[in-house]
């Protein structure tokens, strides 16, 4: 079976805080009757739209594809073992409606009691037209004990602002000095927001949220979220909203307090690292947005041919933010468009994007952090700069 890229069709999830239009990423989803909050690009029940596995779910394709498509890190069974062994950075400019379980909004329907390490990355677009609930996610240690039925995996994530209007804001982490007692005092009179670190959001901003970081997202933006494959969420406050049946959504305050980080957090708005920048006839730019043991994400901007060589250790995902063109690989090609997610197998010798319009995309993969840090050091970046984008 010859390796080839394939496109994954998204799944759309209605949310009480969602939007009635997903344009411009999905222009065919405007004037919606029900508000859509999320587009899951790599849900296990997403369907493969092209290639050998067309019509199969991502779960089926992941298990049936040759091991070399997944990469040596993931082994012959599709199980990921210990996260963080893929080297990353090949082709990056540095060469050597989902319902929840009781007790928490848990993994979407495709996530069963079997291990979720089938596929390690969950990538979404988020379309908020109202504030999300104030919430927090558990880490692996807590989830493995208390949330086995929901997959037993915690949730560390990052957000990248695809677009943002004036006034867009997120709350990430608590202010210094806010302890559990003060948090509970703020919860009673519904004054929680004043205890959080506010961040204005501008297009291109990136935020890192390790598990245990309380947060919420406001309206007036579109985010691309890259995360561990988990959807465990503990709601703390939901702004008094009710569902279609007039009932308030369930809160999970006791569990939230058990996993929440009080005091300093290493998350929040981060300073991306520019890896490559060129102006003139061939404008192109690569920025490392964020990296941690679970994922790394880069933003690439280019207006001429861009190659993506294989890395035999891991597959890579390309998420098209804007621009159109052709994706080519040996003896074949396909058109790419905004809002699409393409998987490039680890054994694919070479893929290249030929833009018909200036193109911006996110590339995400599972990294090897020591190797990644060494690449960045060799590129002349200081340890201090690296520490603000690469997290242990």
Describe the protein:
There is one protein chain. This protein is mainly β and 392 residues long. It has a domain at 11-47 and 97-265: Jelly Rolls (Sandwich), CATH 2.60.120.10. 12% of the residues lie in helices and 32% in strands. The protein has 7 helices and 23 strands. The strands form 5 sheets. The chain has a 7-stranded antiparallel sheet, with no helix packed on it. The longest helix has 10 residues, at 369-378. The radius of gyration is 20 Å and the shape is globular. The two termini are 37 Å apart. Mean pLDDT is 88; it is low at 77-103 and 105-116.
What is the count of helical runs?
Answer: 7
| Rg computed from alpha carbons, rounded to a whole number of angstroms | 20 Å
What general form does the structure show? globular
Distance between the termini: 37 Å
Second-tier CATH architecture of the domain at 11-47 and 97-265: Sandwich
Order of helices and strands: EEEHHEEHEEHEEEEEHEEEEEEEEEEEHH
**SS elements, strand count:** 23
List segments where confidence is low: pLDDT < 50 over at least 5 consecutive residues: 77-103, 105-116
Assign the structural class, choosing from mainly alpha, mainly beta, alpha/beta, alpha+beta, or little secondary structure.
Answer: mainly beta
Q: Give the strand order of the largest sheet, numbering strands 1, 2, ... along the chain.
A: 1-21-18-23-16-15-14
CATH class of the domain at 11-47 and 97-265: Mainly Beta
CATH topology of the domain at 11-47 and 97-265: Jelly Rolls
What is the CATH homology-level superfamily of the domain at 11-47 and 97-265? Jelly Rolls
Q: Could you estimate the helical fraction of the residues in percent? A: 10-25%
Estimate the mean pLDDT confidence.
Answer: 88
> Largest sheet, if any?
7 strands, antiparallel
**How much of the polypeptide forms β-strand, as a percent range?**
25-35%
């Amino acid at each position: 079976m010859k390796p080839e890229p394939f496109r994954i069709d998204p799944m759309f999830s209605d949310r009480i805080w969602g939007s009635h239009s997903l344009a411009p990423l999905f222009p065919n989803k405007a004037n919606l009757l029900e508000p859509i909050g999320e587009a899951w690009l790599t849900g296990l029940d997403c369907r493969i739209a092209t290639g050998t596995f067309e019509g199969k779910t991502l779960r089926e394709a992941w298990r049936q594809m040759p091991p070399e498509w997944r990469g040596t890190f993931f082994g012959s069974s599709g199980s990921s073992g210990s996260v963080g062994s893929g080297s990353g950075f090949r082709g990056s400019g540095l060469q050597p409606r989902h319902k929840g379980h009781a007790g928490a909004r848990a993994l979407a329907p495709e996530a069963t009691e079997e291990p979720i390490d089938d596929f390690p990355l969950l990538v979404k677009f988020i379309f908020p037209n109202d504030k999300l609930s104030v919430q927090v996610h558990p880490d692996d240690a807590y989830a493995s004990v208390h949330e086995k039925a929901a997959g037993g995996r915690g949730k560390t994530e990052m957000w990248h602002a695809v677009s943002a209007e004036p006034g867009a804001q997120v709350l990430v982490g608590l202010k210094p000095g806010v302890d559990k007692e003060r948090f509970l005092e703020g919860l009673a009179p519904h004054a929680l927001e004043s205890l959080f670190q506010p961040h204005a959001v501008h297009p291109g901003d990136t935020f890192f949220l390790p598990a245990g970081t309380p947060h919420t997202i406001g309206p007036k933006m579109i985010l691309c979220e890259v995360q561990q494959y988990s959807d465990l969420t503990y709601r703390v406050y939901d702004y008094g909203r009710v569902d279609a049946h007039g009932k308030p959504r369930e809160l999970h305050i006791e569990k939230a307090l058990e996993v929440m980080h009080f005091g300093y957090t290493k998350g929040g708005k981060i300073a991306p690292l520019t890896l490559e920048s060129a102006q003139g006839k061939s404008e192109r730019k690569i920025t490392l947005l964020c990296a941690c043991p679970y994922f790394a994400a880069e933003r690439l901007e280019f207006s001429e041919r861009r190659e993506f060589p294989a890395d035999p250790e891991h597959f890579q995902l390309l998420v098209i933010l804007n621009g159109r063109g052709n994706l080519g690989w040996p003896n074949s090609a396909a058109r790419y468009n905004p809002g699409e997610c393409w998987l490039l197998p680890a054994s694919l010798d070479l893929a290249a994007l030929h833009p018909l319009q200036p193109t911006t995309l996110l590339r995400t993969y599972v990294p090897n952090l020591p190797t990644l840090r060494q690449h960045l050091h060799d590129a002349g970046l200081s340890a201090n700069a690296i520490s603000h984008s690469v997290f242990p």
